[in-house]
Amino acid sequence: MRSFVRAFFIVSLLLISLASFVWLGYRLGELHGNPSQGAQFANSAAKQLGPPPIPSKSEIVRLFSAVWYFDAATTWESTRWLGIVTEQNPMDVWVTQEIMYDTKPDFVVECGSGFGGSAALWATMLAQINPAGRVISIDTVDRMDEARKLPIVKQRVRFLIGSSTDPAIVADVARRIKGRRILVILDSLHTKEHVLNELKAYSPLLSVGDYIIVQDTNLNGHPVVLTHNTGPGGYEATQEFLASNSSFAVDESRERLLFTLNPKGFLRRIK
């Protein structure tokens, strides 16, 4: 945020300086009875001052990410699918749809149901990509009553109540998806320990070419919330997981839309 304030201050100062030159130019023109001369002076001053500096692409993305994330009430906290809160970034949703189309999963396994809006979203996409596809969504708290009223949820979503790392839950998921292609989305508790345990639990269930999407790896300064209140999170868990597991790699092509809440979080099984 300090960089954002500094950039805002510099641009503001340049604009104030330009406005001062324009005002002075017109005043000089008025004093000499020739307003057009004032305009010429203002134009000359503007050319001397030059345009404000343009931030780099990475800086623009970083600043946009900060503004979008911290304005949560009108951005990610308000996103809905079929009327149900999803708390998703639309650009990441688009990329997830592309992954689903490319891999044709039989199951989407979602850790972290929230209100069930994202499960409804994945089910809607999956219905077009794999007509036999289903969604398994896991959460410790059942807040999905409204989502359960949706026809797409009734047809294609199974909610499991419990911890995503509970051995009984993991065994239940493994039984349901045995021998099938899957896409795993981790969006539950965003601590390093929990995400790392999820990665270890679900990664063996994937086939070559399947993906695990670790959501909210943007925390702890990647680039937002320099020190998250839960300490190290998904980004750090992903880095540790990859350091000891050569079967997965980050697919950076899935970040091509620039703005993502999941930097380095699109993991593809490569062997």
Task: Provide an overview of this structure.
With 271 residues, the chain is an alpha/beta fold. The chain has 2 domains: 2-54; 77-269, Rossmann fold, CATH 3.40.50.150. Helix content is 46%, strand content 13%. The chain has 9 helices and 9 strands. It has helices at 2-31, 35-49, 57-70, 90-103, 117-129, 151-156, 167-177, 192-202, 234-243; strands at 80-81, 84-85, 107-111, 134-139, 157-161, 182-186, 211-214, 248-250, 266-269. The strands form 2 sheets. Strands 5-4-3-6-7-9-8 form a 7-stranded mixed β-sheet, with helices on both faces. The chain has a two-stranded antiparallel sheet with strand order 1-2. Helix 1 runs antiparallel to helix 2 and helix 8 packs across helix 9 (234-243). The longest helix is centred in the N-terminal third of the chain and has 30 residues, at 2-31. It starts with a helix and ends with a strand. Mean pLDDT is 87; it is low at 7-16 and 18-33.
Briefly summarize what is shown.
This protein has 271 residues and is an alpha/beta fold. The protein is 46% helix and 13% strand.
